[in-house]
Amino acid sequence: MLIKRKRGWEMPERDATPEALFLDRRNLLKGAAAGGILASAGWFGLGRAEAAGEPDPSASLYPAKANAAYALDRPVTAEKLATGYNNFYEFGTDKDIVDRSQALKIRPWTIKLDGMVEQEQTLGIDDLFKKMPFEERLYRHRCVEAWSMAVPWTGFPLKALVDLAKPTSGAKYMRMETFEDPGMAPGQKQFWYPWPYVEGLTMAEATNELAFMVTGIYGKPLPTQNGAPLRLATPWKYGFKSVKSIVRFSFVADRPKTMWQTLAADEYGFWANVNPDVPHPRWSQATERFLGQSGRRPTLLFNGYAEQVAGLYKGLEGEKLYM
Amino acid sequence: MTLSNQERSRRTKQLIGVWLRRVGEPFIIIVLAIPALQLAYDSFWGPFLADPFPPATRISGIWGMRLLVAGLAITPLARMTGLAAIIRFRRPVGLWAAAYSIGHFAIWSLDYGFDLSLITTEILRLRYLFVGFIATVMLVPLAATSFNAAIRWVGGRNWRRLHWLVYPSVLLALWHMATAGRLSGVDFTIMSVVTGLALLWRVARALPKLSTAR
């Protein structure tokens, strides 16, 4: 029997974003870019980093060309919601960490590629950016807490970074680590959390076309609260997998233990794939609250990306894939 | 005219009592509405706008819990300080505790669109929800019988018996809070300690009566 697995760009017509909406989105982004220019002039005090007179060194990368293969079945979330409602425990356990996260210094920033690689590398973030193919993608984002959004991320496929790192054949997993600096991030003074934040993917997941390294949002460099200067987006998994402000990628043979596993292994596992039928121990995952909309909408298996990623989990049915 | 110290202290207490009744009680009634107003503002126009249900559920629950425990502490405080007049704060505090707790349940239910079958399934599936639900349900008859007419109608003795329900309700609510998730450590510790002390005080007072009755 022929089993045809659809690729990301082979989506049914019904899933395509209506042209009017798509065109309007570009206008919205242009408008947002214009807003950024005004802010850099310090007119409205928008965008603190720009207003401080320190233009982001990667600003010239934006806006990147949109990859039309990654469209959405829903409108994009308003920018002020996606950039104002953030889980970033390094700066506090509430969602309102925008102001506190401004303390994060995102330059200079170095990225370490180590572990089972041909040669360990340490790169300045802007040197890394120069080697990477930038594009913009529209992705759904589903938090394990049952809220969701749809965001235009800018960045490059994680596969491009893996290719740059040249892992050896022994590497089975990729371990990702957030910066650790309690001086900048007061949350890291809370000793009962096992800092730094660690997440991981299998090599198959990391080289899947959907795994995306994010550097920007809404056609602009990432603000600190969204995980500047480099974060992960794995849209078929719960949001806590999408580690923020990464400093280190290690290629390893054994499955890394993530921070959330260390904290609560019975609630937050390694796989954390979105599945409406597998509830969190304390709440249902069947539906979600889409930021800016009232009421709930049904949650989709693999957050709507089953066609692209379900195949990654063949033979892993014995694992707790959905927590 | 010279007054004995005893007489002076009696008069002071009387004066405080009058003030507590005339100013204190309306003050309490109004002040305890502030968290609800603040929550409404934050949810509709303020920082919770993006996703109001989680914070609204959490904050309403915490206030229900705080006031429930505060209500439990009033009687021991009144007896120990000799300020019997603060007993009258029990009713507004208790009513607001019930209002915040029922509101907490209503907000949680609204998050699920008041979908009755879904709400029932969740309450039966998750123990902490079941425990919290029972704790809230127990407060309903207490709130409903808090008016003078109701007290007269039920009769003082029965009323007192009925209002014993507050003890299991507080304990279940504490259990609910402890297992509902990322609890506020400070809040929970204070509430547990106050509840423990208030219960101990009542047990200590009841013990001699029980032994003499034998």
Overview of the structural elements:
The complex is a heterodimer of chains A (323) and B (214). Chain A is of the alpha+beta class and 323 residues long. Chain A has helices at 19-40, 48-51, 79-82, 98-101, 125-131, 158-165, 203-206, 259-264, 306-309, and strands spanning 110-115, 121-124, 135-142, 147-157, 173-178, 198-202, 212-217, 220-221, 231-233, 246-252, 287-290, 296-298. In chain A, the strands form two sheets. In chain A, strands 3, 4, 7, 8, 9, 11 and 12 form a seven-stranded mixed sheet that branches. A five-stranded mixed sheet of chain A has the order 2-1-10-5-6. Chain A is globular, with a radius of gyration of 19 Å. Chain B is mostly helical and 214 residues long. At the A-B interface, loops of A face helix 5 of B.
Write out key terms for the chains shown.
heterodimer, A: 323 residues, alpha+beta, Sulfite Oxidase, Chain A, domain 2, B: mainly alpha, 10 helices, 0% strand, globular
Which SSEs are present, and which pair or pack?
The complex is a heterodimer of chains A (323) and B (214).
Chain A: H1 19-40, H2 48-51, H3 79-82, H4 98-101, E1 110-115, E2 121-124, H5 125-131, E3 135-142, E4 147-157, H6 158-165, E5 173-178, E6 198-202, H7 203-206, E7 212-217, E8 220-221, E9 231-233, E10 246-252, H8 259-264, E11 287-290, E12 296-298, H9 306-309
Parallel strand pairs in A: 1-10, 4-11
Antiparallel strand pairs in A: 1-2, 3-4, 4-7, 5-6, 5-10, 7-8, 7-9, 11-12
Chain B: H1 5-31, H2 34-44, H3 53-81, H4 90-111, H5 116-125, H6 127-144, H7 148-154, H8 156-162, H9 166-179, H10 185-213
